[in-house]
């Protein structure tokens, strides 16, 4: 009896994690990193085979991967060449994603270890998926180290569904720096005159928007057809 | 945004930013600023500079540097000295002193963070307690004293530690200050353990006495707080007004009467009386409620707001 309830709890947790695992893969892919299609569209059966222990409990310590930026992404995040800097280097780099096995709130220690791992292996960005929320001081670790490594944290719970797949969420496209300049020029705007999107907005978090980036939002409307609007991330 | 908006007048050399108010008729041409005087900064720029200076000043005065992460890391693993004789009620003097000195520089918020940080590691929230915190499951728990949130209970190893931590928190929330190395710091004391052990045995009577001295103590604290609070309020107000920066600058106020062009007369009611609407008039004006039924002609801009779909 006892064993049966245990295994059903494990099964539920595994299927939750499988969904979060898929969403985080889709997210990384949507941001422009290279991932093989069969890695992204992993079946529950295969996920169970690879990431659970013998007793059926999920093995979060094994759930981690890295991804390299695609050609298009490298190009998008390369600042335009100037006279003083004729060969600019791209800002895009390898990303590291890890599920945190910690089952209580995430403190400074856990966070420092993750940041340390990212910087020691020269990852430009890191995503930590946690079961429990971060302590406020752990959050501070992220802001302090932000200039070296871009760290983001997601709750498993927030990744159970991919919000961008929802019918009512329009398509969001991040503009490159040139595209942003061209947009402002075309409409004779200062960037502060654009409508805004908060950095903590779920979509902004999904796309990993940074302050100052502009996102193009394409909506389809029955009466107006397709139309685009732009938002500045603040 | 539609087309390039070329202004009719050719831009003159000494152009000041255009205001939204209409210009008096006489100005164009005649009132170019004298070239000898250095042109003052435009008004909005002046205001911006003033604001920035104010912010700088405020930052210098108000914000104390946040407690560094290392402090949190160290205190979250407290106590350093552990042993059979060490407990939350009887901590080692060295640890107790270090804890007090550290927490004197804390904001209430930061003390809360410390408790959170200790809980992350599974420790009791009270910094000098070597025991792990409680780990009840569920959302609520029934106690002899009532119902409590499990999340609140799980912060501590016992109710005694909750009391000890609260005692520190209260002192941070309503600080009274003492001098340490020439600097004002918050006075922090550990809760008197002997008091609690006796109080629990001796009921009401003994308790009332200690409560009285407690009251006197807190009254004294309140008095000091009031004094520091008023000076703090005063400086804050001065900074907000910008007085601290420019002590004796006053604003000049000129009152100008509007010239009248015609003799004053009351609103004309004769038309309304004729229409039988005199009872609806207020100061010669009939109030409408935007229904647009009666006066579609006069209020025609109403339908401009109708979406096209409805108009068709
Ligand atoms: Zn304790």
Quick one: CATH superfamily of the largest domain in chain A? RNA polymerase, Rpb5, N-terminal domain
Estimated helix fraction of chain A: 25-40%
Average pLDDT number of chain A? 89
Share of residues in helices of chain B = 40-55%
Query: What's the shape of chain B?
Result: elongated
Distance N to C terminus of chain A: 53 Å
Kindly provide the name of the CATH class of the largest domain in chain A. Answer: Alpha Beta
Through-space gap between termini of chain B: 27 Å
CATH class of the domain at 57-199 in chain B, named Mainly Alpha
Protein model, in words:
The complex is a heterodimer of chains A (234) and B (312). Chain A is α/β, with parallel strands linked by helices and 234 residues long. Chain A has 2 domains: 146 residues, RNA polymerase, Rpb5, N-terminal domain (Dna-directed Rna Polymerases I, Ii, And Iii 27 Kd Polypeptide, Chain: A, domain 1, 3-Layer(aba) Sandwich), CATH 3.40.1340; 70 residues, RPB5-like RNA polymerase subunit (Eukaryotic RPB6 RNA polymerase subunit, Alpha-Beta Complex). In chain A, strands 1-2-3-4-5 form a 5-stranded mixed sheet, with helices on both faces. In chain A, α5 packs parallel to α6. Chain A is globular. By secondary structure, chain B is mainly alpha-helical. Chain B contains 10 helices and 6 strands, in the order ααααββααββαααββα. Chain B is elongated. Chain B is 41% helix and 6% strand. The site of zinc ion has 9 residues of chain B, from loops.
